[in-house]
Write the structure tokens for this entry.
Amino acid sequence: MRDGAVQVGILGLGVVGGGLYQILRDNAEQIRRVAGASVEVAAACDLDTERLRELSVPEALQTTEASQVISNPDIDIIVEAIGGISPALNFVTAAIEAGKSVVTPNKEMIAKDGGEILALAEQHGVDVQFEGSVGGVIPILRSLKESLASARIDQIIGIVNGTTNYILTEMSEAGAEFAEVLADAQREGYAEADPTADIEGIDATNKLAILAALGFGQRVPVEEIYCEGISGVTAADIDYANRMGYVIKLLAIGKRAGDELELRVHPALLPADHPLATVRGVYNAIFVSGPECGEIMLYGQGAGALPTGTAVAGDVIDCARNIVHASRGRAPCTCEGEAVLRPMAEVETSAYVRMQVADRPGVLGQIATVLGREQVSIESVIQESAHDDVAEIVWVMHRGPEKHLQAAMSAIEDLAVVREISSMIRVVE
Amino acid sequence: MRDGAVQVGILGLGVVGGGLYQILRDNAEQIRRVAGASVEVAAACDLDTERLRELSVPEALQTTEASQVISNPDIDIIVEAIGGISPALNFVTAAIEAGKSVVTPNKEMIAKDGGEILALAEQHGVDVQFEGSVGGVIPILRSLKESLASARIDQIIGIVNGTTNYILTEMSEAGAEFAEVLADAQREGYAEADPTADIEGIDATNKLAILAALGFGQRVPVEEIYCEGISGVTAADIDYANRMGYVIKLLAIGKRAGDELELRVHPALLPADHPLATVRGVYNAIFVSGPECGEIMLYGQGAGALPTGTAVAGDVIDCARNIVHASRGRAPCTCEGEAVLRPMAEVETSAYVRMQVADRPGVLGQIATVLGREQVSIESVIQESAHDDVAEIVWVMHRGPEKHLQAAMSAIEDLAVVREISSMIRVVE
């Protein structure tokens, strides 16, 4: 057992880094008790020194020089809370090579470079922990790595992006359109000035790659994950979905499919009585199932200074325990090889499709004939009263190969009687 | 790092011990990969040898002599899955004294003797893990000890008993009475032949003691926890609750109250939109909140061979990692002292009260006057049409000290116009 305090250097004192700093400072006595040693912030580094002053970081700990923090021999743990790939990855690599354990909530970096980072950590006998990278405060990664470590996981479905869940919840509850709610969300700080990574599903894709790696025990080529955002979801779709007993959520879906993995991020109709359906606003939740563990769901705040800071602080405590007990590298990466992802065309899906057609006899039959020819089977269809010679038809298709659905949509779009296919949203049962 | 397999002895091959045995056998390759060593069952001990044969335990591993398993120097980890205090506690004590790590899902033993067991474990430098003791597969204890270790926890509310949740769900969905549903549950194996510990809330009280110790960092005198079961809940109460926008659940409630803890198990009206309200059947869920972590809920199967076996196997893997990395005792008990429980009379509650009264003018006023005199404030009241000169009145009281409510109930019972107070169920907002 080591004596003396464990020293932490924080790189990046933005939302999460700032939250972590507050927690390590304000809950120091509790953390000392559970970690088995005092955990002290030895350096807080940010190019924006205003952030450091706002957090009342003592001047002696303030710095703008990450390299000095990394090379400081007194520091045991580096927390990288800068985000993005560059310079975060260089800092993390340098910290591991300097023999320091690393904690990071950086989902993009872990999703893309996690395999190499963990291999380097194993080589240097240090820990790399990243609970804060998925689901904010939700203890999903440690649960997959530890509590559920013996269980075969068949399926992981998550609401892992707070911005899109906030927007879809507001659209559903206020009956408002996407653009309007997005603008509100930006004003209220629930969406970023450039919301692309959130609303187009890229953020959720990174998180799914991490969940799948831990749940299925294989490294995941994140760039191959099928990704579709919510910018095409309309108030009309949400209204139809609600009337049919569904809600619309942006889901990150991971499933075992034989020797392959099926990984996809897209908006989906989810039955209103599914445990994930009641997850509102900026909350996140992750649903996991398998033959031994049954169905499990973990729910909590997916973002925010103190919730995500709590997840990061939990990792810091874990690393500190390993330093105190000389057991660094105690729970390394256990992925076996790289996952083969099933191409989206081969995935089985069912779908909700809303289209505008000419309001003439025979049109429904003509479309249904195309569906039949392309082997797409119809579960239900609604045609409501027409306006200006245009009728709206809403179909729900039975489950079948995505490629059949795509071929059918393409053929239907070519029909003269079809004005447009307004929406195609998959259904998850 | 230690070479060679980690050897496990299982005491008790009933539901959970049997589930663990299957998991360690069938998922051995995955467990070897994540634990950093093979985890082998070296002995499976049960007085009922039929159980061992049913599980196809190889004859060389079968035994009926727990003391031989405990004294076997090749065994590293003892899993106690017998349940109850005697002989389980003696076996666990002997195992720790023999230098072995212990894993147990025994909630009664941990709730009553956990403090002494963990102190002994620390003295002998071994681990004692008990994730399976609360919430079956739900990874709540490890989350409190690790992921949320930095956070102040203010409140823990759990549905932690599957039998009672199954009964209340069936009563609610079928409109059936308690005794009828209990008999069905016994036939279907969801309730034991002697269901007292479950239906009277004793099992939930043990689990609350464990949750509170980990969440609030204090040892809990389990026998002082206020405990009330569900045998008094009627179909009429559930119907009224539903009509008022509530569901009735048996809740285990833990709150910080200044320097004291407020701990209680009782049926409660819970708003239908509360995250715990949708937990149906034998599922369990635990809701945790605090100033840093916000609101978190973990949901999963609270019982069953493979779900609880998964939790126990996760603990075995944790112990195995500490054996491999020579870091046993890495996360010891961190409780500080014994909790002082706030007496129930001092707790603030609100309540739903259903009573039968004489169907005469002035009765409602007479009762309301008593409530006012006892400082109980009325939130709502429903009086429906009378039968046979008896009217039913349902009150919901505003939040206030429990002692005022009790005094009022006592005074109301003494009124000549009151036939009976049929039900008094607390309301949780």
